Amino acid sequence: MQRLDPDLNLPDLYLFDTLHTRFYLTGLYNLDRVRDLKHKLEYWSGKEVSNESLLRAITVGNENKVLLKKVAELRVAEPPLLSGAEALQIIGSSMFMLKDEHNTLLAQFLKEAEKRPVKDGVRLFVIGSPLDNLQFYDLVESCNAVIVGEDNCWGNRCADNPVDTSLEPTEAIAERYHLKSPCTWMYPMALRLAYCLQKALEAKAQGAVFFIDQWDYAQAWDYPELKKTLEANGIPTLCFKKQQYLLSDIEREHLKIGVEDFIKGIGAGMK
Fold it and tell me: What is the pTM of this model?
């Protein structure tokens, strides 16, 4: 865009390029990229990013992960004390607030969490495209269901894998992203299948729903194998693919009918 229209007032562009395998050489490459990013941020800000400041940020971030894990425990309780839509808001807000402020609010919330009213409905696990809004969760949970966990980039996975404070900070950050919980586009797929099954079983999910946005081909890559794995372990699945980012009323009605039929089938199978 800048080449085509030099008068555009665009900010500097920097590509943080990381690889998505767990090989040793991948780890070295990613470490170099983290250090390059650190230098770039220092250049832009005109300030040194010290190891001490990184360690403070890592410590606060790790505390946030611990608290979010406790929030996740409210969802897998029997019965759940937190809906999926509520959890998605709590997790999402951690990405936009200063972490220390978010930690304070999380601690306050958790003090009163046991007094919350329980959530009723079929326990569902959601898999697929990142969901940065509530429209799908609200729709699913209006159908006598509660989303007790998910596998997407805006869900519980954010609280996985604290950063190792015993390492030099840039090494620790690179290691965390190198060995983090496996996303769809990470290799090998076997780790991905095992992780997703484990999380669905820990959530005591009675069914799994795939929600894949239009053009989000990466999220569809492992769907066939995930479907086989979940169903082989007694977790029925439902898939909505090629979904619009913003759902129309007609699309919502179609999804609602599909979810309701799926839940009825789960109920019939439990009798």
Answer: 0.91
Closest CA to 243 of 122, 148, 133: 133
- Sign of the dihedral defined by the CA atoms of residues 98, 99, 100, 101, in that order: positive
Cβ density class 169-201: b for 16+ within 10 Å, e for less? bbbbbbbbbbeebbbbebeeeeebbebbbebbe
Fold category of 24-43+51-270 in CATH? Rossmann fold (3.40.50)
Cα–Cα–Cα angle for 105, 135, 263, rounded to 5 degrees: 105
What are the extents of the domains in the chain? 24-43+51-270
Q: For 243, phi and psi rounded to 5 degrees? A: -85, 145
50's tokens = 């010290």
Could you read off the pLDDT of 200-241 as tens digits, one per residue? 999 999 999 999 999 988 888 899 999 999 999 999 999 999
Q: DSSP H helical segments within the chain, as ranges?
A: 24-45, 51-76, 84-93, 99-112, 135-141, 169-178, 189-202, 217-221, 223-232, 249-270
Q: What is the side-by-side strand order in the sheet with 237-243?
A: 145-151, 122-128, 207-213, 237-243
